[in-house]
TrEMBL record:
InterPro entries associated with the record: IPNS-like_sf (IPR027443), Oxoglu/Fe-dep_dioxygenase_dom (IPR005123)
Name of the protein in its database record: Fe2OG dioxygenase domain-containing protein
Keyword field: Iron, Metal-binding, Oxidoreductase
Bias-annotated ranges (Basic and acidic residues): 163-195, 310-323, 399-426
Residue ranges of the region described as Disordered: 61-84, 153-225, 244-279, 310-340, 399-444
Residue span(s) of domain Fe2OG dioxygenase: 207-349
Record-stated family: Belongs to the iron/ascorbate-dependent oxidoreductase family.
Top-rank taxon, per record: Eukaryota
């Protein structure tokens, strides 16, 4: 046997050709998870159900913020942050957002989430390889933009070296700027954690990729029509509500006008809207960053979460019955298993270093953070509360009315932002949720 046979240029394709074509044409695809990964999703669901069933005052300990007292267990970021920690939107939904550092988590979440993060990130990385081949790129083209998101961290942050699940108080690291270690009482950089053998990092140094656990309130809670910000999103649902919209089929070329049909083109009947479809229970969806890096050949998946009318009616009836009976035991905090739930993993591009556009058929390179920020600007954050969404949308309309906004960004064009100047960095990096997030209606 010849020992000099080179290895194959790429792993065997993961997706069948027809599935890959559907994903690259419409932006979404139903998947059947491997048994071991499906089991991990069920385990994380059970753990998150147990957390959501806790009293409200217990869950609020994990919301983001600073100066919230010694019992606070949430991440030390802005209290309005929706990209980390626990968030509750009254009458709609509650959710817990995890980032790579895996700190500041309720008990049990880390052990269920860390192996799921690893397997899901690598599954989506593999799908990106198939998409790269579809686009005529090298299957490794995406490696550099996702390398820092593929493995979760160990959940250790505090100096004691054994704080799994984010139980620590952030004594020394709070407020450290990106890329800097904490400083001791003399103002000297500590550099590395005692006994850990690894550099200290602040949770704000995390890449943008996230894992989010949702529980929708019965009869309420959804998400407006939107596109996702990142590369690929995997959504696993328990209960109906997620809907996707296929891309409109290509239109035939206009034919020469005949004497039989003398109408002006503007008088032609409008095309019917493309209908929304109920998404498969496990769905992978493309995002805006993939759309940009593919030179706009791969569409971003349009999707939304709707409330079933029957569920809303039944929930309203239950609420009235509860009010009439003044029952204090049959409250929403104890009914998480009856609600629609979902687990969403959003694989996003790195914000560190430069992205080589030659790998995607372009030329030169672009700072990864600049690419992320330019895609992210002028968007409405659909996961903020109703009042914040209204303010963001009004600001978006005001900016759009002045003719400012994102011009084309990608391998075939230069990055331009009209006459709009970048927002000054406030020290919170990619966690600054005052930036608008939405263009169609919203982007998650």
């Amino acid at each position: 046997m010849d020992d000099d046979v080179p290895p194959p240029p790429r792993p065997p394709p993961l997706l069948p050709p027809e599935s890959l074509l559907h994903l690259c044409s419409h932006g979404y695809l139903g998947l059947e998870l491997p048994h071991h990964l499906a089991d991990k999703y069920n385990q994380l669901l059970a753990t998150s159900d147990a957390f959501f069933a806790q009293p409200a005052e217990t869950k609020r300990l994990y919301r983001p913020g600073t100066g919230l007292g010694p019992e606070h267990r949430g991440p030390p970021t802005s209290a309005t942050n929706t990209e980390r920690g626990y968030t509750h939107i009254d009458g709609e939904k509650e959710y817990l957002t995890l980032r790579k550092s895996m700190t500041h988590l309720p008990p049990g979440i880390y052990d269920a989430a860390a192996p799921l993060w690893h397997d899901t990130a690598n599954l989506l990385h593999r799908i990106l390889g198939d998409i790269g081949v579809y686009l005529g790129l090298e299957p490794t083209a995406w490696d550099g933009v996702v390398a820092d998101s593929l493995e979760p961290s160990d959940g250790i942050y505090d100096d004691d070296g054994d704080d799994k699940g984010g139980k620590g108080k952030e004594k020394d690291g709070e407020g450290a700027k990106d890329g800097e270690g904490a400083k001791d009482d003399k103002g000297e950089n500590k550099g590395e954690k005692p006994g850990s053998g690894r550099p200290r990092t602040h949770p704000r140094d995390d890449p943008p990729t996230l894992l989010r656990l949702f529980r929708y309130e019965p009869g309420g809670g959804g998400a407006e029509q939107h596109r996702d910000l990142g590369l690929l999103t995997l959504c696993v649902c328990w209960g109906k509500g997620l809907q996707v919209r296929p891309q409109r089929p290509p239109q035939p070329q206009p034919q020469p006008q005949s004497a039989v049909d003398s109408r002006e083109p503007s008088q032609a009947p409008p095309q019917p809207p493309v209908p929304w479809l109920n998404a498969p229970r496990v769905t992978v969806m493309t995002g805006d960053t993939l759309h940009v890096l593919s030179s706009y050949r791969i569409p971003s998946a349009q999707h939304r979460v709707v409330v079933d009318a029957k569920e809303a009616v039944e929930s309203a009836g239950e609420s009235k019955a509860d009010d009439d009976s003044n029952s204090s035991n049959n409250n929403k905090e104890t009914r998480s298993s009856e609600s629609r739930r979902s687990i969403v993993f959003a694989l996003r591009s790195t914000t560190a270093g430069d992205i080589d556009l030659a790998a995607f058929g372009g030329y030169g390179s672009v700072p990864a953070r600049e690419l992320y920020d330019n895609i992210r600007k002028s968007r409405v954050n659909i996961n903020a509360n109703k009042e914040a969404r209204a303010v963001m949308r009004a600001e978006y309309e005001r900016v759009r009315g002045k003719g400012k906004g994102l011009k084309e960004v990608g391998p075939k064009s230069e990055m331009e932002e009209g006459d709009k100047q970048p927002k000054p960095d406030n020290g919170e990096g990619v966690d600054d949720d005052s930036t608008l997030e939405g263009e169609l209606v919203g982007v998650a």
